[in-house]
Write a structure and sequence with these properties.
This protein is mostly helical. It has 10 helices and 7 strands. About 3% of the residues have low confidence.
Amino acid sequence: MVLVFSGLCLTLSQPVKAGGGEGEGGKLNPAEVIIEHISDGHEFHFFSIGEFHAVIPLPVILYSPQRGLDVFLSSRFHHGHDAYKGYKLEHGKIHAVQEDGSADEAVQVYDFSLTRNVVQMIIALVLLVWIMTGIARQYRSGKGTRTAPTGLQNALEPVITFVRDEVAKPNLGHKSGKYLPYLLTVFFFILINNLFGLIPGSANVTGNIAFTAMLGIISFLVILFSTNSHFWKHIFWPPVPHGVKPILVPVELLGVFTKPFALIIRLFANMTAGHIIILSFICLIFIFGEMSKALGYGASPLFVALAVFIYLIEILVAFIQAFIFTNLTAVFIGQAFEGEHHEEAHH
């Protein structure tokens, strides 16, 4: 992935025109370019050279009570320049328009389109299920139990045992086996999406707040269903002097909701920040090129090297963030039945 990324930067950074990122006077607008690349979209856009655009259009599925159901490819919009069937794509949003191109406020539009975040998430899900079911079949056939594991099974077994021994067992004790399937699913699903997001032209799924919010909400529900009476007693009647209880109870209750919120924001912010830094370095090439063509060419190797360096770090961050989300989820679940740990220690 590093080789592909650096190769694209070196070969395409100068002749490629950044689409949709022009500001006043035809100058590059870095903020618009960066937001366009890290946000969701209706196509996979890899690069543009002149009038040629290397894109994969995605299905647009629209329903309007006034106009009914419409299904077509996003290429009909011609990158937002044209309207189609009374709809137009502007700044990543589809809205109804009249014949003169002005917005039609009387038409209500429900967008069920398969955007690049959705498509890439489905691909990651299919890949996850395919890999894990394949490995499970190998274990059932005796590979990895009666004989040494081979291939992908051999590569993933240390990761699975690491999550089991370093994340699940220390935080969940005797209940680790019950929650291990969920923890492994979360870990590998986040990891696959993190790595997919580093492929040039792909979507940054884990940099989408809606994606991380759903992961956080699911973990929140798992935490809530794992609580016991000791947990809620500690929340509403903490073991502190009576005068401090009115102050501590709201803080403890707020902590129940800040835990999943921390999971949501941590993953979203870290995966978005890396992409922004990489794109900022690439945009600096164009900014310097507008100042002086020689300066643009001269600064290109430096900024490409910096971008590749951050890209290498992002590969490490992809693994770290998957581990942190999984580990914190295990910690919060363990805190939910904290009283049982005390009873075990007493015995």
